Amino acid sequence: MTVARACGVSELEQDAPLKVELEGHPICIVKDSAGEVFAIGDTCTHGNISLSEGFVEDDTVECWAHGSRFSLRTGQPLNLPAYEPVPVYAVTIDGDDVLIDPTVTVPTSEKEN
C-alpha cells in the first residue's frame, strides 16, 4: 500500500474537479456540494478526455466532450456514450491532507455501500 498526499482539502473548491497525478495515475479529485471528497480515474472511458475538465453535479462528474456522467461513488457511467467504469480510489482525510493510494481501487462491493 502506497498512500500519498494528493492535495490539501483547502485546495479543493466545491464542485470544481482537480486533476492530480500519483505514481503515473491521473486522478480526478472532487469535493461535492455536501463537502465529501472523492477520487476517481481522470480519464473518460469513452475517449481520452480529462474528467477534471468536466462538470460536477451532486455526486457525479460529466465529461465535457460527449456528456457521459460518472458516479463519484462507484465510477460507473450513468449514460452513454461511455459504458465502462472509471476506477475509484479510497480517500483518507488527515488534517488538511487528502491521502490516496493510487495503486489500489475500491472493490465494487465497497463502492455500493
TrEMBL record:
<feature type="domain" description="Rieske">
    <location>
        <begin position="4"/>
        <end position="100"/>
    </location>
</feature>
<dbReference type="Pfam" id="PF00355">
    <property type="entry name" value="Rieske"/>
</dbReference>
<protein>
    <submittedName>
        <fullName>Non-heme iron oxygenase ferredoxin subunit</fullName>
    </submittedName>
</protein>
<keyword id="KW-0479">Metal-binding</keyword>
<dbReference type="InterPro" id="IPR036922">
    <property type="entry name" value="Rieske_2Fe-2S_sf"/>
</dbReference>
<keyword id="KW-0001">2Fe-2S</keyword>
<dbReference type="InterPro" id="IPR017941">
    <property type="entry name" value="Rieske_2Fe-2S"/>
</dbReference>
<keyword id="KW-0408">Iron</keyword>
<keyword id="KW-0411">Iron-sulfur</keyword>
